[in-house]
Design brief:
Helix content of chain B: over 70%
Mean pLDDT of chain A: 88
Number of domains of chain A: 2
Radius of gyration of chain A: 24 Å
CATH architecture of one domain in chain B: Orthogonal Bundle
Shape of chain A: flat
Low-confidence stretches of chain B: 1-17
CATH topology of the largest domain in chain A: MetI-like fold
Largest sheet of chain B: none
Order of helices and strands of chain B: HHHHHHHHHHHHH
Distance between the termini of chain B: 33 Å
Structural class of chain A: mainly alpha
Strand content of chain A: under 5%
Strand content of chain B: under 5%
Number of helices of chain B: 13
Largest interface: A-B, 115 and 106 residues
Number of strands of chain A: 0
CATH class of one domain in chain B: Mainly Alpha
CATH architecture of the largest domain in chain A: Orthogonal Bundle
CATH superfamily of the largest domain in chain A: MetI-like
Mean pLDDT of chain B: 84
CATH topology of one domain in chain B: MetI-like fold
Order of helices and strands of chain A: HHHHHHHHHHHH
Oligomer: heterodimer
């Protein structure tokens, strides 16, 4: 077989595999999108229509009437933004100290932090639920955010510590000689250099907090405070077979913001993630 | 950006003298917020749960006595062996297939990028999107795919091929298989990202050299790519295993542990024992078991990392 021929075959094989991968990942989503545009009658039709004939866009209006999906999205947004900000405020100084200072038991501390990262969220949240319930503190978004932050802090701290480790210490010394104190050094010298690492943390923390389910599911029982993850499960348990189309519309609405974000920013996200996987 | 604009002159004069040490020159103030939050949100619950596991506490009455009964009951309950085997099946097959699928897809994407194929970005993005969807919504979506009536899409397509209909979620054995499949779909994305990052670090020179030496694709895979990827695969394996042991959201949305308790994996069974059966002691005992699994896996992880020389 000639070299040219072989290349063509490899290409064809790759494209065929690409097709299989894309279909297996996109088909479930496209099917739900299709269901979300069908009337209740069409949903039950046999054979099922892959491309909806009724194009029932009113499902989206109906689901907004029957469940506060926009409120859920807004709650998720508020929680995610506060979690990201608070996480950075706590993890950056901690990572700086773990990277730049000598201290006793540093390795023990790093291992303890890693251990907390691996703990099951269900196990951790149950005693917190009991504590909050006995103090009447359930449904306090501020406190829920603290638990969210705790869930992502170990990863963020480790990641940023490893990132700062890769920055040469000469840069610190130069800043000190120039008269910076430690705060100024961190803010004006290390932060700008660590920006790619910080962006990685922001993306990963945002996605994890957006997906977080156990914490709000256990700590929030006021439905006006639900994030989308809990909201959709709530929608599911109140809907029956007849209203599959509404559940589908609700699911699509709750994933569409992130999906759009990912498609638009995919190049940066892949960069941030691979960067993280190697360093973290 | 300038670092010259504050109090430089003053400092320049002071420089020969030893600068006065402030509290910020010690690591502790930087670490306090982190330590406070981690202690409050992790240490306190862990102590509580271990404490509760040695009591007969429940969610209805206040007060409790100390007892080992929870552990004895946990091991002898008729649901224990099914829970362990459901968890074992779920974790084992999820992890194996997430590793394999993640690796294959990462290879395809790296190869596609090398040959500058146009569709590569589409593949990468569609896999990545699965990672960004909350686990519960993945459960809801797969619940619709697994619809067992004639209008169910998977059963319809299998029907065209002359198979089925398959009772995806109503048959206990099938349900466990269905949950595992959905979880593989969910976790492959993350595994792919790690593998992709790993493959990008495999030295190109080494591969070029192997090609010049006349190594074929299979030989290159066996003697260069796989050995170079072994550490990252091991790390990936452990992270995925821990994640899968801790899985709660997706299964909750897809089957809630049913039918019966055929898909009640360990994290779900803790939740059920405590919030549905109000049996705190027993739920706590199971929780302690899961914590022990978490700790053991983390120790293995550290051993692997240590061998890679990442922990000083």
């Amino acid at each position: 077989m000639s070299k040219e021929n072989k290349r063509t075959w490899t290409k064809a094989g790759l494209y065929f595999s690409f097709f299989l991968v894309v279909i297996s990942f996109l088909f479930p989503l496209l099917w739900v999108l299709s269901l979300s545009l069908q009337t209740p009658f069409e949903v039950l039709q046999v054979p099922p229509n892959i491309i909806p004939t009724s194009f029932a866009i009113e499902n989206y209006r109906d689901v907004l009437d029957s469940a506060p999906v926009l409120q859920y999205l807004w709650n998720s947004f508020r929680i995610v933004v506060s979690t990201v900000v608070l996480t950075l405020l706590i993890a950056i100084p901690a990572a700086f100290a773990l990277s730049r200072y000598q201290m006793k038991f540093k390795n023990h501390l790093l291992i303890a932090i890693l251990m907390t990262q691996m703990m099951s969220a269900v196990v951790i949240t149950i005693p917190i639920y009991r504590l909050f319930a006995s103090w009447g503190l359930l449904n306090q978004l501020g406190l829920v955010v603290i638990v969210y932050v705790a869930a992502v802090l170990p990863f963020s701290t480790w990641f940023l510590k490893n990132y700062i480790d890769t920055i040469p210490k000469d840069i610190d010394e130069a800043a000190i000689i120039d008269g910076c104190n430690k705060w100024q050094m961190l803010r004006r010298v290390l932060l700008p250099v660590s920006l790619p690492g910080i962006v990685s943390v922001v993306i990963i923390v945002a996605v994890q907090s957006w997906s977080q389910f156990v914490i709000p599911f256990i700590l929030i029982d006021d439905s006006s405070l639900y994030p989308v993850s809990v909201g959709v499960v709530n929608l599911q348990s109140t809907q029956t077979q007849i209203t599959t189309h509404l559940l589908a519309a609700g699911s699509i609405m709750s994933i569409i913001p992130v999906v759009i974000l990912f498609v638009v920013l995919q190049r940066y996200i892949v960069g941030a993630l691979t960067n993280g996987a190697v360093k973290g | 950006m300038s670092v010259h604009d504050t109090a430089v002159s003053q400092d320049k004069m002071d420089r020969p003298l030893k600068k006065k040490k402030t509290v910020w020159d010690t690591p502790y103030p930087w670490l306090i917020p982190l330590l406070v939050i981690l202690t409050a949100v992790f240490l306190y619950p862990i102590i509580q749960i271990v404490h509760l596991s040695f009591t007969d506490a429940n969610m209805i009455q206040i007060g409790h006595d100390y007892t080992f009964e929870s552990y004895l009951r946990m091991f002898t309950l008729p649901g224990f062996i099914p829970m362990i085997s459901a968890t074992g099946f779920f974790v084992f097959f999820s992890v194996i297939f997430q590793l394999i699928c993640g690796f294959i897809i990462a290879l395809l994407i790296v190869q596609g990028e090398k040959m500058k194929l146009r569709g590569t970005v589409v593949v990468r993005t569609s896999v990545l999107v699965a990672w960004a969807i909350p686990g519960v919504i993945i459960g809801v979506i797969w619940g619709m795919l697994y619809n067992e009536t004639d209008a169910g899409i998977i059963n319809y397509m299998l029907g065209i091929a002359g198979i089925g209909p398959i009772p995806f979620l109503s048959d206990p054995t099938m349900a466990l298989l269905s949950v595992t499949l959905a979880n593989i779909w969910r976790g492959t994305a993350f595994s792919m990202i790690l593998m992709y990052a790993g493959l990008k670090t495999v030295s190109k020179d080494l591969i070029e050299a192997a090609i010049i030496d006349g190594a074929n694709g299979f030989q290159r895979m066996k003697s260069i790519i796989l050995p170079a990827m072994a550490p990252i695969m091991l790390v990936n394996l452990i992270i995925i295993s821990i994640d899968t042991f801790n899985t709660f959201d997706m299964v909750m949305a897809l089957t809630s542990g049913g039918p019966g308790n055929s898909t009640e994996v360990i994290a779900l069974s803790i939740y059920t024992a405590i919030f549905r059966e109000f049996n705190l002691g027993e739920g706590a005992a199971t929780a302690v078991m899961l914590l022990i699994i978490n700790v053991v896996m983390t120790i293995i992880y550290l051993k692997v990392l240590g061998r890679r020389g990442q922990v000083e």
